[in-house]
Amino acid sequence: MKRMTSILLLSAAALASCAAPASDQRAGSGQSKDVPAVRVVGTPVSCLPLQSIRESRVRDDWTIDFRTNGNRWYRNTLPNRCNSLGFERAFSYATSLTQLCNVDIITVIANTGGSGPINRGSCGLGQFTPVELVK
């Protein structure tokens, strides 16, 4: 019995040493503690015109910030976790409209450096909330 307890304790210690530090991810949820704080400055919208999007910044598996004309920022908090998005920090989308909307699907892209990019999965977008990044 004593030997079995020792084996279990060693196994638990080995597993704990493999876990990501809590400072990197919040309880394994894919949410980074490094997502910049924002102040909401308007009512969420369902779509952004494609021609107005100047930049996108993936913050974690749940959050993408979009910069539009006039240096306005919109935070999109995904309704569900998008695995690998925060790690890969790259995505694509296809739309037949001139807008990117909360009903659209993004695809996480991994650049392997070899035979080209690999799709890592797809996720739905959320509402686009106008925000100011808190300095």
Features of the shown structure:
135 residues; alpha+beta; 5-stranded antiparallel beta sheet; 3-stranded antiparallel beta sheet; 10 strands; globular; disordered N terminus
Topology of helices and strands:
Blueprint: H1 2-18, E1 38-40, E2 47-49, E3 53-58, E4 63-68, E5 72-77, H2 85-88, E6 91-93, E7 99-101, E8 105-111, E9 117-124, E10 128-133
Antiparallel strand pairs: 1-10, 2-7, 3-4, 4-5, 5-10, 6-8, 8-9
Signal peptide: 1-22
Keywords: Signal
Question: What is this entry, summarized?
Answer:
This protein has helices at 2-18, 85-88; strands spanning 38-40, 47-49, 53-58, 63-68, 72-77, 91-93, 99-101, 105-111, 117-124, 128-133. The protein is an alpha+beta fold.
| Structure class | alpha+beta
> What is the distance, rounded to the nearest whole angstrom, between the alpha carbons of the first and last residues?
57 Å
Number of strands: 10
* Mean of residue pLDDT values: 82
Unreliable runs, pLDDT <50, ≥5 residues?
A: 1-27
Q: In what order do the strands lie side by side in the largest sheet?
A: 1-10-5-4-3
Q: What is the general shape?
A: globular
Helix-residue proportion? 10-25%
Please outline the major beta sheet.
Answer: 5 strands, antiparallel
The H-and-E topology, N to C, reads as HEEEEEHEEEEE
The helix tally amounts to 2
Count of individual domains: 1
Q: Evaluate the radius of gyration.
A: 19 Å
Strand content: 35-45%
Signal peptide: 1-22
Keywords: Signal
